[in-house]
Amino acid sequence: MQEQELFAKMSHTILKGEIEEAGELARKAVEMKIDPIVAVNNGYTKGLDEVGRLFRTGEYFLPDLVAAGEAMKHALDVFDPFLKSRKTEKKLMGTVVLGTVEGDFHDIGKGIVGSMLVAAGFEVIDLGVNVSAQKFLNAVKELKPDILGMSALLTTTMPNQKKVIELLEEAQERQNVKVMVGGAAVTNKWAMEISADAYGEDAMAAVTVSEQFAATSVKNQANLTPTINRIRM
Amino acid sequence: MNLKRNIRSIQPKLKMDVLSPDDIAKIHEAALEIMEDVGVRFPSEKALNILEQAGAQIDRSRMIAKIPSTVVMDAIDKAPAHYTLAGRDMSNDLALDGKHCYLSTDGCGIEVYDLETGIKRSSSKKDIEDSALITDYQDCIAFYWGPMVSAQDVPAEVRPLHELEAAFTHTTKHIQPETIITEPIAKYAIEMGAAIVGGIQELRRHPIFSVMQCSTDPLGQDKGSLEASLVSAEAGVPTGFMPMPMSCATAPATLAGNLVITTVDSLSPLVLIQIAHPGAPVFFAAAPTAMDLRTGGYTGGGPEDHLMAIAFNQICAFYNIPLSMGAYATGAKEPDWQAAVDNSFAGLMPVLSHTALLTGVGLLYGSQILSYQQMIMDCEIYDIIKKLAEGIEVNEETLAVDVIKRVGVGGNFLAEKHTRKHMHNIWQPVVFDRTPYDAWEAGGKKGAYSKATAKAKWILANHKPTPLESALQKELKRIIRAAEKELIR
Ligand code: B1M
User: Fold this and answer.
1) What pTM was estimated for this model as a whole?
2) How far is the CA of A84 from the centre of ligand 1 (A)?
3) CA-based nearest residue to A74, from A10, A31, A131
4) What is the per-residue pLDDT across A137-187, written as a single tens digit (0 to 9) for each?
5) Which of A85, A109, A137 is the last residue in one of the domains?
6) Which of B156, B246, B294 is the closest to A159 by Cβ?
7) Residue A135: count of CB within 10 angstroms of its CB
8) What residue of B is the nearest CA neighbor of A204?
9) Out of 3.40.50.300, 3.20.20.480, 3.40.525.10, 3.10.50.40, which CATH number does the structure's domain B1-391+427-489 have?
10) For residue A154, how far is its CA from the centre of ligand 1 (angstroms)?
């Protein structure tokens, strides 16, 4: 297969949300010794751009977007070891640790936010639902993410977002991570009250603020690898 | 002044089906297959032990129970088809007899359009008192569900008990909280209920509250909810589980597939309850919907919801267990055209399929914002639906042949005795605006919303529900204090 043909196919797998195929083509690229960054930029990202355009014009729906994100993730997983070995540690927009707070089992919104962040080029580590403050803290310590995202849908579990922030402060980890909060019950006012860095009213907003964090992040500026174009809504 | 009126339930004559018996059988079989092959997550050791003893195959590490169809059917056969949801005032008892439909409030909102200022604000315990008081007055509303909003001004650990207190003291109608979701809270709630009716045995005979849980779709339940329902069922307090599968997100995109998830998630916990406490009063509940394809939001309204409302009631009738269906509950942000369209359909469809319990009126934005005006206007929608569903009675008296002969060609029926006898059956609006144009303009162009505002204010100012004896009020407070001591760390 020609390189150009492979790139076109990569783009197509994203466009059609063909998750397995996206991974296979990435393995093919590795075999063909194609630079992963080039494959991502000339292949998959083209598909993502098109998906973004189709979503904007109303032809694509959220499930198309989520499937595109999943396909992208699959491809990136294949490239991951190669990118790491080249010491391009911060290859992406940044890392986001995501979870729904303790006592709360709502995960649809968090899942959508996660997929959109993946589609936007972030590495997302999803801790799941009912995540304790301690578990969030441990994840921040161990994974050193750029952004910590907490979802809460219940007025009874919102205070747990505050608890996590306090714990981060106690452990002197607060300054190392941007905290984003969201979920049906959460408001901008609440986010300010608990000194979160950002509030995401919906998944689009969550992506936008994360991108702003990425743009201003020192870690990222020091990084010479190209960033991946994002889906723009 | 106590302005109490009798509850206006609906005895529908009109009947609408969307599934054939064959369709119902297919969905039933698919649900059994899923429960047996894939299983359902019951993240409670207690629940898993009960299911295991009955013959379910348990995966302890994933807390999943695979339940053979024979176990499901044996258990479900034990559930009563009919029973009563009691009111603090016995004239407010609701007979779940397969013939009546009863309306409730919607529940667990988090914000309120303030009745005085019109501004959106956080909900508090006072809003529960006010909305329970309006419920007590409105003859359309048969029971108080939710509570309508969360009492965010009291400690979260004991919030459900404060909410229950506010409801018990402001209405004598049946109360069905959706917030009794841990075993300790359930025990205190039972203590409160028992105190009011005069003991735990009396509560069994006269359950003045029942408990609604949420399922964790797809194919899952919540630990606290399961354990709370087990202790409730043991005390004879009716309990049910409400899945809200969203097609495309927590259920397949197809409605039949969604109905399979709805059936499994609503049925499987009832199997558990019947194994543990055979014959305990239980109900089905559901609020299936489709995801909004652009935002991923819970739509709360839309043709899919209405179809599934009818379909799921047919499925519940097949199991012969009453259903509580998510009705009304518009996705609109204000009491506007969208809210009216949504709630007219969402109210009508479950009634046309003879659903026992309809939850419920008064919240906007996918059950998040309370509007007192919407509460009143939803009652009006219900009133129209009642008239519709009760159909047309045809007999000698209603055919009125004698009267027609007497009036004859070109006359009118205004002064006829027959007219005065039957005119009260003609639907009369409370908030619909039917004033002549000029009068409407001169009166400041006031429509339904203004009338609903005035009506809500009037009820709050004038209606005084039968108070709970002061000794009992004190007892409720004592129970809450004891709960605070135990549960607030
Ligand atoms: C990190 O940065 C970010 C940034 C942005 C972020 C973000 C994080 N997280 C979210 N966002 C934002 O982006 C997303 C995409 O645009 C958005 O996410 P959302 O999650 O808001 O939106 C989703 C895409 C779609 N929306 C949803 O998925 C939630 C819809 C509603 C109807 C809802 C659902 C579906 C469910 N529920 Co629940 N539920 C309700 C909800 C009412 C509502 N209209 O929101 C709400 C939140 N629930 C409520 C309740 C009471 C409960 N629920 C419960 C259970 C459930 C189900 C399991 C049945 C189900 C969840 C299924 C699941 N797998 O998630 C129970 C609690 C269980 C628990 N411990 O968590 C239970 C307690 C009911 C019970 N008795 O068991 C109410 C809360 C009241 C309160 N006082 O807070 C409620 C408002 C509905 C109601 N009125 O009853 C944004 O908020």
Assistant:
1) 0.90
2) 37
3) A10
4) 999 999 999 999 999 999 989 999 999 999 999 999 999 999 999 998 899
5) A85
6) B156
7) 16
8) B295
9) 3.20.20.480
10) 7
